[in-house]
Amino acid sequence: MGLPKAWMVYPRVLPKSITAAVMQKKTMKDYFRKFDCNGDGKLNQRELAMAFRQLGAMAPGLRALLAILKADENGDGYISEDELDKLVDYAIERGYYFNISP
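Structure for Probable calcium-binding protein CML28, as requested:
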């Protein structure tokens, strides 16, 4: 079961909850990308800690470490562009989000 074909072609007809979820993920991905301080296309623990600090984490260093453990699929200790979706899912599951409306 998937989305009806019309929803894939015409995103304007997506229900607001789906549209909001898609926008939330895109916004979170863009947010995390801004913390790639050295421009290498990957997020290290320090960069993630800064991001989680700005999101209001009480222990941003720990949150960053846990995020890497959850989202770092290749085990290199960094979050690459390919792993960004897992990082965003982790952040949203932990209650970090932006108040946006479609």
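The helical segments are 5-9, 16-33, 45-54, 60-71, 84-93.
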